[in-house]
Amino acid sequence: MVKSGILERVTKGLYIAGSALPAERPDPFLLANQILGPSYVSVESALSYHGLIPERVYTITSMTTKASRRYTTPSGGFTYTRLSLPYYSFGIRSVQLTKQQTVMMASPEKALLDKIITTPGVEFRSRTAALSYLESDLRVNIDDLKQLDLEAMRNWLPHAPKKRTLMILTETIQTV
């Protein structure tokens, strides 16, 4: 069936409709949820989807409770980063991409926190450093930061890695 184009192999045991069928192709975010579970789309992928960063992202990045992994498939690149419970479970939303495709994705707030937590070397010691990272490294529009739910972000901090850095981040967002 693969040779005839009816099926296309994504990973071992995961197939999608091939080019010989007139079926809708699954969104890469949906594939990301299926390749390794449990997982949800986050960091740059979710930040771009939510419009917080201007860049288009080509490798889908997700968070998981399992070991970190990378997959290179004919459908694209997929990266999974391990987060521990209970922090992993906060801020996950069900997002309907099309009428038939719904994915698990980080809220804008959770995607931003996940990005900071999972990026080696990102440690804020001041609000100035946090603001510089947001504006220069991530290129986040400051007006978009004002829309984030700071209360939710603060509720997740006791369970999050890099607590001090995230506390400085939330204080910075509150003052912009």
Helical stretch tally: 7
Q: State the end-to-end distance.
A: 56 Å
Shape field? elongated
Structural class: alpha+beta
Radius of gyration over C-alpha positions, nearest whole angstrom: 18 Å
Mean pLDDT: 95
Strand content: 15-25%
**H/E series:** EEHEHEEEEEHHHHH
Q: Sketch the major β-sheet.
A: 4 strands, mixed
The domain tally reads 1
Order of strands across the biggest sheet? Answer: 3-4-6-5
Number of strands: 8
Uncertain runs are none
Give the % helix: 25-40%
Task: Write a compact overview of the structure shown.
By secondary structure, the chain is α+β, with helices and mostly antiparallel strands. The protein has seven helices and eight strands.
Task: Describe the overall structure.
There is one protein chain. By secondary structure, the chain is α+β, with helices and mostly antiparallel strands. The protein has one domain. Helix content is 35%, strand content 24%. It has helices spanning 28-35, 43-49, 108-118, 127-137, 142-145, 150-156, 163-175; strands at residues 7-11, 14-17, 39-41, 59-64, 69-73, 76-82, 92-98, 101-106. The strands form 3 sheets. Strands 3-4-6-5 form a 4-stranded mixed beta sheet, with helices on both faces. The chain has a two-stranded antiparallel sheet with strand order 1-2. The protein has a two-stranded antiparallel ribbon with strand order 7-8. Helix 2 (43-49) runs antiparallel to helix 3 (108-118) and helix 4 packs across helix 7. The longest helix has 13 residues, at 163-175. 34% of the residues are buried.
